[in-house]
């Protein structure tokens, strides 16, 4: 965990200080910023593993930071950390490229775990916010572009893939879908074989690229 380099973006200095004090015990906080311009300049210079990003800030908010950085450094990962749990905020940040979205009620241990998972390629949401994302992408155009790779997967394999990409453990997927853990393992093995991938992190990135998360 200590090797993870994290950057904080929030326009409230007191909040940044609190997060830094708690998160700094678990990861390396390499910097912080309170404005869009300062954040973009520092992030592009430091290239952290994960940026913790507030949503509502002056001059375009967190989305402006995310879009500006991703134009030149698409590999930087963003995790939204906001007081807002409004569906439009969640969807807006995810469509812009954030890897996850958690609210400021999260505990320090949970936040550190979310940062780690995002750094490893997972998509991380609290359950209610994940529902917003799934609903939004489920309501997209009824005529999606054909995807031969995705078409190889059965409906159940797609369900398992979506939950896996959202950060669910095998045990949690089994409970969610009312199947055994061994059945989950079998589905994941089939998906890996069909897509010619070797681990869940590659699957998570693949699913996120196709907006399946």
Explain what you see.
The chain is an alpha/beta fold and 213 residues long. It folds into two domains: 5-136, Response regulator (Rossmann fold, 3-Layer(aba) Sandwich); 142-209, Arc Repressor Mutant, subunit A (Orthogonal Bundle), CATH 1.10.10. 54% of the residues lie in helices and 13% in strands. It is built from eleven helices and six strands. Strands 2-1-3-4-5-6 form a six-stranded parallel β-sheet, with helices on both faces. Strand 4, helix 4 and strand 5 (100-103) form a beta-alpha-beta unit. Helix 4 (87-96) crosses helix 6, helix 8 packs across helix 10 and helix 9 packs across helix 10 (181-195). The relative contact order is 0.10.
Key terms:
single chain, 213 residues, Rossmann fold, Arc Repressor Mutant, subunit A, 2 domains, 6 strands, 13% strand
Structural class based on helices, strands and sheet pairing? alpha/beta
How many beta-strand elements? 6
Low-confidence stretches: none
Largest sheet: 6 strands, parallel
- Assigned CATH superfamily of the largest domain: Response regulator
CATH class group of the largest domain: Alpha Beta
- Domain module tally: 2
**Shape estimate:** elongated
Question: How much of the sequence is in beta strands?
Answer: 5-15%
What is the helix/strand order?
A: EHEHEHEHEHEHHHHHH
């Amino acid at each position: 965990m200590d090797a993870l380099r994290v950057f904080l973006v929030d326009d409230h200095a007191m909040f940044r200080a609190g997060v830094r004090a708690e998160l700094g015990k678990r990861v390396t906080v390499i910097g912080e910023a309170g404005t869009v311009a300062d954040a973009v300049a520092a992030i592009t210079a430091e290239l952290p593993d994960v940026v913790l990003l507030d949503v509502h800030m002056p001059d375009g908010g967190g989305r402006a930071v995310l879009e500006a950085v991703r134009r030149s450094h698409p590999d930087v990962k963003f995790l939204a950390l906001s007081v807002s749990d409004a569906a439009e905020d969640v969807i807006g940040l995810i469509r812009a490229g954030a890897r996850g979205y958690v609210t400021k009620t999260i505990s320090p241990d949970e936040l550190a775990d979310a940062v780690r998972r995002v750094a490893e390629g997972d998509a991380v949401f609290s359950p209610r916010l994940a529902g917003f994302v799934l609903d939004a992408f489920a309501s997209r155009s009824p005529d999606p572009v054909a995807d031969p790779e995705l078409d190889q997967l059965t409906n159940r394999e797609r369900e398992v893939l979506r939950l896996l990409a959202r950060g669910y453990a095998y045990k949690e997927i089994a409970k969610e879908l009312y199947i055994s853990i061994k059945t989950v393992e079998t589905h994941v093995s089939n998906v890996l074989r069909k897509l010619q991938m070797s681990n869940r992190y590659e699957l998570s990135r693949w699913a996120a690229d196709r907006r399946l998360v």
